[in-house]
């Protein structure tokens, strides 16, 4: 667990990651709150808070007496939200920093393209 | 938090049951209360037998009878009682903190311990009284041997024998655990005060005896009692000691 | 949060030994069914508080309520409580099997099968004088008592002394698994804060007999940051913020700042060439209870 952030958020993120990676499939059952708690060695209430966060967001849903399942469309929803976050957490600060350094938007586009090409080249070289 | 079943209400408890359980807790290790006193009894008896054999072997036939009669002044029969003093101190110094760890109340502990003392004293007294009677029968058959039939036990009736052994055990338990409790509550200062108080009481009695040239009336009364009455009267200081012990234990802090 | 009656309620609790205060005006309440950490330095009053909760000690002032009743000499309440004390004394000649045999008579919810299971897990010798067991084995016996008692209020006072890392993790895992199945109130005093911080739902911190913190573990986590860099830059960044602790090394300084930092704060710090690191749970408690820190002021800010 990462020290700086609330554990329940980190639990929710890990479940989301597992859904994105396909480790947890839509309409598949996810481990119980207690299983999460045991696995990550955290307080069950904290694990429950993380799971409930995902239930509120419609990523998971409860079937009474059976357990917790991944909702249909969960993957899409997570991807969409992470894209929004990507803009907020990466693109916006990048633009701000670029502006403070006097990098024009079209120059920025060029930098990204160059970086991608360089990345592909170095990838080829290593092969 | 998810659903919680723990309702903050508590059921009624029969305190009598818990007092009995305190007795069971004392007796869960049977060595302390039963094993060791009877091992000491056995060892003391063996020692007495060996001494009797040595006396028989070393004294001429003519003096033998009289020499063996000398054993009726032996205190060996009382040797297990000294061990009970250790038990009384331990009951406060070690069993009490242990019992508190089992969520036992002080009152339950004190009552349970008192009952344990009474039961153990009764059982031991019964055992020793039976052995005294057996030895009396052996003596009646002509063999001279005194281990149990020593001191007043050789002369008193079986009822008095039992009562005397019972009272002495209860007194020793009560006095030693009272000392233990005073120490637990007030530490060295409490011990000092208690010893000074005991010393002053003894000095007071002596002073009265010296100044008036006669024993204080209470001692007159005590020694004037028939032996059964005298031993029964020992239960009075035992009760006083127990009350003192309880008073100290009620608010004694737990340490360590 | 649930709105049930608190299982433990402490009001203005104080305890003085002769003239030395051990606990001063402590007030808090605990909801049932949570794992609560009781943290603080040696001599902070943790054991005194736990003993008063279990009726083993008597308050000089204030009151303690457990299940709504005074626990002192109250067997109705006490049979629902188990206090595993760090220095528990055992009578001469008592073996672990004697102790375990007596436990069900006093703990209403005792589970003997679970106790047997734990004896095996901790490899506790049953037929040896408890006083001759190693420190770790004695701790294991205490842990077994506490867990198998399944008491609705279970209190552990530094239960791990002498236990190796494997045994400690066995304890944490078993505690968590059993608690998940049978939620109950667990109060745990410990120095190994980092090891248990993820298990805790609530935290009480005592310092010099006073209650310094009473808040959820989640709200405490990440509620402080360490900022490091050139002393001048660090101090200007810290200006107007609550500083819990400050260390200097030559021209460099590290300050622990209370409160969560915003994205703007992070950018400002980066621009000033400062490094920001999250403060671990344990470090936060250490900073809060180190004498150099402006204690009361800090607490009022961290307390949300």
How is this fold's topology laid out?
The complex is a heterotrimer of chains A (127), B (256) and C (304).
Chain A: H1 7-21, E1 29-30, H2 33-40, H3 44-56, E2 60-63, E3 67-70, H4 74-101, H5 105-126
Antiparallel strand pairs in A: 1-3, 2-3
Helix pairs in contact in A: 1-3, 2-3
Chain B: H1 15-27, H2 30-58, H3 61-69, H4 79-101, H5 106-140, H6 158-212, H7 217-224, H8 227-233, H9 235-250
Helix pairs in contact in B: 1-5, 2-4, 4-6, 5-6, 5-9, 6-8, 6-9
Chain C: E1 8-17, E2 20-30, E3 35-39, H1 46-53, E4 61-66, H2 75-78, E5 81-84, H3 96-106, H4 112-121, H5 135-149, E6 153-157, H6 165-181, E7 185-189, H7 193-196, E8 202-207, E9 210-216, H8 217-220, E10 224-230, H9 231-238, E11 243-249, E12 252-258, H10 263-271, E13 275-278, H11 281-288, H12 295-302
Parallel strand pairs in C: 3-7, 3-8, 5-6, 6-7
Antiparallel strand pairs in C: 1-2, 1-4, 8-9, 10-12, 10-13, 11-12
Helix pairs in contact in C: 4-5
Low-confidence stretches of chain B: 1-8
**Secondary-structure element pattern of chain B, one letter each:** HHHHHHHHH
CATH architecture of the largest domain in chain C: 3-Layer(aba) Sandwich
Structure summary, number of beta strands of chain B: 0
Q: How much helix, percentage-wise, in residues of chain C?
A: 25-40%
Quaternary structure state of the chains depicted: heterotrimer
Q: Using CB atoms under 8 Å apart, which protein chain pair has the greatest interface?
A: B-C, 39 and 56 residues
Distance between the termini of chain B: 37 Å
CATH superfamily of the largest domain in chain C: P-loop containing nucleotide triphosphate hydrolases
What does this structure look like?
The complex is a heterotrimer of chains A (127), B (256) and C (304). Chain A has five helices and three strands, in the order H-E-H-H-E-E-H-H. Chain A is mainly alpha-helical and 127 residues long. Chain A has two domains: 7-72, Arc Repressor Mutant, subunit A (Orthogonal Bundle), CATH 1.10.10.10; 87-126. A three-stranded antiparallel β-sheet of chain A has the order 1-3-2, covered by helices on one side. In chain A, a hairpin with a 3-residue loop joins strand 2 and strand 3. The longest helix of chain A is centred in the C-terminal third of the chain and has 28 residues, at 74-101. The mean pLDDT of chain A is 88. Chain B is an all-alpha fold. Chain B has a domain at 84-141 and 152-250. Chain B is globular. The two termini of chain B are 37 Å apart. Chain C has 304 residues and is an alpha/beta fold. Chain C contains twelve helices and 13 strands. Chain C has a six-stranded mixed β-sheet, with helices on both faces. In chain C, strands 11-12-10-13 form a four-stranded antiparallel β-sheet, with helices on both faces. A three-stranded antiparallel β-sheet of chain C has the order 2-1-4, covered by helices on one side. In chain C, strand 8 and strand 9 form a beta hairpin. The two termini of chain C are 15 Å apart. Chains in contact: A-B, A-C, B-C. Chains B and C meet through helix 1, helix 4 and helix 5 of B and helix 2, strand 5 and helix 3 of C.
